[in-house]
Amino acid sequence: MKKLLSAAAISICLMSTANAKDIVDTAVSAGNFKTLATALQAAGLIDTLKGKGPFTVFAPTDAAFAKIPKAQLDALLADKAKLTSVLTYHVVPGKVMSKDVKAGAVKTVQGSALNVSTTGGVKVNNATVTAVDIVADNGVIHVIDTVVLPN
Questions:
Q1: Over the stretch 3-37, which tens digit does the pLDDT of each residue have?
Q2: Which residues have a Cβ under 8 Å from the Cβ of 66 and sit 6 or more positions away?
Q3: Over the range 96-131, which residues count as b (16 or more CB within 10 Å of their CB) and which as e?
Q4: Domains of the chain
């Protein structure tokens, strides 16, 4: 026997589909990822993260970027190759929800691995995950408090 959805449930499903946003739009609408959006634009990665995916993004907040000395951040934003390497180091292929996170090395789109630890909260290298499972239509965002740098 098929289970029928109520009109309200159908409306909610249609609204969430109509309001679905990609990773970039989801981050921009959150309001605390302005520096990340600027960096993605400078690196030419907007179209990639608006693409099909799925992607898991460990997204540093504006406060995380503010931890980088201004001169160093300005130099990073001006060096497209290095900036692309840093930003793609924050992206993991696939959609990894918080319930599926396991400790260990996780290969990034950049090619190097992030070290994920789950003892006393989730950490990605030296960054603490402060919010999880911000779902976009092409992946998921987990918020981190520090920009992580590839070796």
A1: 333 333 333 333 333 456 999 999 999 989 999 99
A2: 35
A3: beeeebeeeebebbbeebbebeeeeebbbbebebee
A4: 21-144 (2.30.180.10)
